[in-house]
């Protein structure tokens, strides 16, 4: 943000996944500012310890979890022109989601359900989806049983890492790479661009997103997960150098 001279000022807090509770001053800051840029928080293994991620979701009623899946220039993938978002219920009920393209030109919405078994709960979910779909006749609406949906995701490996949150590449990597300065900063940088758009600073968001994509596309500076040998800081420095 400083490199772009964006009109954003952060209140910084050091929160570790091993903590038993989110510090009250952190919650106060989030409620006051209405925006929070959060890095990954490790969930401790074992009983009796509540995940800080779950605490944040419940305390702030963050009921929707949006996961973006899209191609980046310069990175070969099995599928092209992928632009999908999964909207997952975060705070109550079973997992439920809609896959859709969120940019202008939405072409399809898919309701993933278990109504064949959970006839009341997911039956109500499908009824609600169908009622909303009637209001948008120009958008194709389809339904799929979640078992089949998961099978399709497994078959399409290029989508799996971003769409199946529990099995995403970022979740199965070593925790130590963050401390070793090897983690890929692209996700956090692109999340920062999303934050800037939310705050109505689209020009700054475009600059940051374009810089990230240019660095990845050129392929000269990449972290190990993308086939390179660069450190986290080296990638960040390369992105800063590309800011226009």
TrEMBL record:
<dbReference type="InterPro" id="IPR024084">
    <property type="entry name" value="IsoPropMal-DH-like_dom"/>
</dbReference>
<dbReference type="GO" id="GO:0006102">
    <property type="term" value="P:isocitrate metabolic process"/>
</dbReference>
<dbReference type="Pfam" id="PF00180">
    <property type="entry name" value="Iso_dh"/>
</dbReference>
<comment type="similarity">
    <text>Belongs to the isocitrate and isopropylmalate dehydrogenases family.</text>
</comment>
<dbReference type="GO" id="GO:0005739">
    <property type="term" value="C:mitochondrion"/>
</dbReference>
<dbReference type="GO" id="GO:0006099">
    <property type="term" value="P:tricarboxylic acid cycle"/>
</dbReference>
<feature type="domain" description="Isopropylmalate dehydrogenase-like">
    <location>
        <begin position="1"/>
        <end position="239"/>
    </location>
</feature>
<dbReference type="GO" id="GO:0004449">
    <property type="term" value="F:isocitrate dehydrogenase (NAD+) activity"/>
</dbReference>
<protein>
    <recommendedName>
        <fullName>Isopropylmalate dehydrogenase-like domain-containing protein</fullName>
    </recommendedName>
</protein>
């Amino acid at each position: 943000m400083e490199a772009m001279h964006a009109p954003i000022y952060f209140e910084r807090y050091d929160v570790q996944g091993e903590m038993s509770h989110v510090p009250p001053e952190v919650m106060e800051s989030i409620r006051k500012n209405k925006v929070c840029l959060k890095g990954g928080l490790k969930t401790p293994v074992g009983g009796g310890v509540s995940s800080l991620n779950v605490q944040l979701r419940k305390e702030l009623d963050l009921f929707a979890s949006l996961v973006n899946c899209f191609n980046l220039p310069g990175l070969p993938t099995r599928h092209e022109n992928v632009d999908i978002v999964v909207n997952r219920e975060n705070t109550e009920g079973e997992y439920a989601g809609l896959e859709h393209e969120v940019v202008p030109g939405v072409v399809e919405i898919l309701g993933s359900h278990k109504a064949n078994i959970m006839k009341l709960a997911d039956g109500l979910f499908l009824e609600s989806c169908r009622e909303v779909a009637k209001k948008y006749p120009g958008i194709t609406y389809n339904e799929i049983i979640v078992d089949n949906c998961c099978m399709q995701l497994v078959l399409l490996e290029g989508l799996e890492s971003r769409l199946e949150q529990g099995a995403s590449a970022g979740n199965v990597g070593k925790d130590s790479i963050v401390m070793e300065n090897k983690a890929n900063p692209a996700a956090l940088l692109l999340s920062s661009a999303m934050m800037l758009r939310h705050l109505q600073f689209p020009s700054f968001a475009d600059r940051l997103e374009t810089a990230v994509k240019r660095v990845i596309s050129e392929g000269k500076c990449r972290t190990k997960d993308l086939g390179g040998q660069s450190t986290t800081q080296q990638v960040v420095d390369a992105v800063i150098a590309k800011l226009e």
